[in-house]
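Hey team,

Filing this mostly as a record. A colleague (T.K.) asked me to run one chain through the structure pipeline before their review meeting, and I want the input and output archived in the tracker in case anyone asks later how it was produced. No errors, nothing strange. Just documentation.

Input sequence:
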Amino acid sequence: MALFLDTSALIKLFDPEPGSREVAEMVQSDGRLFLACVAPHEMLSAVKRKVREGRLPGERAGRMLEDFRSVFLPGAQVVAFDAEVSGQALALLARHGDAGLRVLDAIQLACCLAVPSATMVLADQQLARIARAEAMTVRLVG
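Output structure:
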């Protein structure tokens, strides 16, 4: 089974929070991991937000980001932002923009759709609803 980790699930591997164990177990049991091309950008943004909000010490944030870049990222397949993904993201925004679908979330969904038979792992309930409306296999964590 191919696992596609949305950033809302990905960050749980590096910062213990509800759902972290579940995501870690899924990743350990399956060797085929996929990330969207925007995952590193979203990961950095999410970590910086946690630091800014006082929920994560800066030193720990640096270690998390280094672990992500040096350990996890090389083991995952990154889905590129190409013409197909771009077109799919635009179509998703057209269908679900009124439901609050954001641009980067549309890119995440489009990247997942580019991976045949992928299960999208995420912690965002609104995004999970949209993914299910697109007949995607979803695993909601946390």
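Quick notes for T.K.: The mean pLDDT is 94. The chain has one domain: 2-38+77-140.
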